[in-house]
Amino acid sequence: MITSLSIKNYALIEKLSIDFSKGFSIITGETGAGKSIILGALGLIQGKRADLSSIKNKDEKCVIEAHFEIAKYHLASFFKENDIDYESDTIIRREILPSGKSRAFINDSPVNLQLLQELSLFLIDIHSQQQTRELSDENVQFEIIDAIAKNHSVILEYQLDLSTYKSNKSKLNSLIKKQADALKEQEYHTFLWKELVAANLKPDEQEILEADFEQLNNVEIIKESLDKSLAIANEEQIGVLQNLKEIKAILQKITPFSLDYAALVERISSVLIEFDDITQELNRCADKLINDPEQLELLNQKLQLLYNLQKKHQVDSISGLLEIQSQLGASVAELENLETDIAQLTDAVQEKERVLDHLAIQIHDNRAKAIPILSQKLITILDTLGMPNVRFDIQIKQTKAYLANGKDEMQFLFAANKGTDFGLLKKVASGGEMSRIMLAVKAILAHYSKLPTLIFDEIDTGVSGEIAIKMGEIMKEMSQTMQIFAITHLPQIAAKGNAHFKVFKSTVGEATQSELKLLTNEERVVEIAQMLSGTVVSDSALNHAKALLN
Question: What is the CB neighbour count within 10 angstroms for residue 318?
Fold first, then answer.
C-alpha cells in the first residue's frame, strides 16, 4: 500500500506532503482544483514519461516521492533479480531537472523507466475512464477469466513452450528456405566440385608441370647444347678436361720451387674435381633426355585444364582452385546436412505442438469452468448496482493458431435489458454501464488475485442516488483486503470512505497553487454537504451529510 506521497515543484503544487492509511480513502474537489495533478504525479511514480512543462519553477528541479509498504507483496525475488536493495518500506523517487532530464530511483538506487514500470504493476493501479474502455479489449477479458480460472501457472508454462516453439519454427522455416535456394544451385555446384576433384589437383603441381613441359617442348635445343658442352669438355686433344689435366701436370713440375705453385696445383685439382662432376652431370642429363611427343601432349593437356579452371574460377594458382574445391565440397555436404537438421527440427516442432496443444486444452477447460462463475458473480453485483436484467454470454472457441495465452478466441456478449439481443460488450454497453461492470470486475478479482493499491478515478460517471451508495459499499468491502482510493463527485460514495482528502486551490501572493488536505470529521460533514447542495450549505444538507456518514 502507498503510505505517503510528497510532491515538490510540480504543476500547481509548490510543496505537498501527505500520509495515507489502509482501507478506503476518498479524494474530492472542484473541477480543476488539481485532482489530475495528483494522478499525474502518481503517473511519474509508475514510470510514465516526464514533461518539462510540468515543472512549476523552471529554475528548480521537480521531485515526486512515494513510500510503499510492500512486506506482504512477496517482491524480494524481484528486487534480487534486478540488483536493488529490498526494503519493506520501499521508496520510489522521480526527479525532473530544469534541463529536462528525468531520473528515477528505487530505494536510492538509480533505475531505468522500464524497471520502474514493471515494479509499479505490483504496487498501484489507477483505474480511469480509459481503463474502463480497455474492458472491451479481448486481452483484458482473458486476463479477467484467467484470474478466476487460476490459469496463471499453466499460461506461464505455455508461454515458455510457445517461445521455444516459435524459435524452432523460425529456424526450421529458415533452413527450408535455405534448402530450396541450395537445391536450385546444387546441380551446378556439384558439377563444379566434381570437375575440380577429377582434376586431381596438388599444391605446387603447376610449377613442376610447366618446367617439364618447357623441357620436353625444347628437347632438340637442350640435347644440342648438352652434346656440344660434352664435346668441348671431353675432346681428346683440345677438350677442357684434357687441358686442365695438362695444366696440372706442367705446374706439378715447378711446385718444389715455390709454395705458390703448390697452391695453384691444389686449386687446379679442385677445379678438375668440380669440372669432372659437371661433366658427369651433363652425361646424366643427356642420357635421360628423350624426345616424347605423347608425354608432351599429356603435359600440355593437363596445363590447359589448369589454366581453364583458373580462368573459370577467376584465380591464378592451384591453391586458389583447392580453396574453391573445399568451399564447394562444404556446400555440397551442407545440403546433405540440411536434410538431417530439418528432420530434427521438424521433430522438435511437432513435439512442442503436442505439448502446446495439451496445455491449450487445459487452459480452455479451466476457462470453460470459470465463465459461469464470472457471469453469475457479475450478474449478482450488477443487480445491486441497478442493472437487474443484465445478462452475459461469454463464448470461447478453440482455433488452430497458437496465440499468446492459448488457442482460444473469445466473444464477450452482453445484454442490459430483457428482450434485447446479445451484442459485443464494446458495442452495446453505455459509459455508465461499463463503469459499473468494471467496478464489478475489480470487486470479483479482489477475491482471486492480489491487486495492488487501486485508485478509482471518477468511476461513478453516469450513476447517482441509490446506485452510487451501492458502488460505495462495494468499494468499501474491497478495502477490507486492499487499499482503495476513489476520486469522486458523488456524496454517496464520499461518505463511505475511512479517510477523506480534499483537493483545493489557494492563492499565495500572485501565485495560484493546489493543495491536498486530510479533512477532520467536522470538515468532512461540510464538504459532503457542499457536494449535496453547492457552495451555500443549508441545514438540511448538513443533516443529510451527517446521515450519509452515519
Answer: 21
Q: How many other CB atoms are there within 10 angstroms of residue 121's CB atom?
A: 11
- In angstroms, the CA 56 to CA 511 distance is 11
CB 27 within 8 A of CB 37: no
Question: Mean pLDDT of all residues in the chain?
Answer: 84
**Which domain range does residue 264 map to?**
178-337
Query: Hey, how many other C-beta atoms are within 10 angstroms of the C-beta on 421?
Result: 7
Asked whether residue 196 falls in the same domain as residue 97, the answer is no
388 lies in some domain: no
Tens of pLDDT along 356-394?
A: 999 999 999 999 999 999 999 999 999 988 889 999 999
pLDDT tens string 482-508: 899 999 989 999 999 999 999 988 887
Can you spell out the DSSP letters for 332-380? Answer: HHHHHHHHHHHHHHHHHHHHHHHHHHHHHHHHHHHHHHHHHHHHHHHHH
Q: How far apart are alpha carbons 285 and 281 in whole angstroms? A: 6
Counting other chains too, the contacts that 53-56 makes at CB distance below 8 Å and 24 or more residues apart are 54/10, 54/11, 54/96, 55/9, 55/10, 55/96, 55/98, 56/9, 56/10, 56/11, 56/12, 56/13, 56/14
Q: How do 499-508 and 109-111 pair as beta strands?
A: unpaired
263-291 CB burial, b ≥16 within 10 A, e <16: ebbeebeeeeeeeeeebeebeebeeebee
Provide the CATH number for the domain around residue 50. Answer: 3.40.50.300
* Number of helices (H), then strands (E), in the chain: 18, 15
Domain edge (last residue) among 311, 337, 363: 337
CA nearest to 512, candidates 53, 96, 32: 32
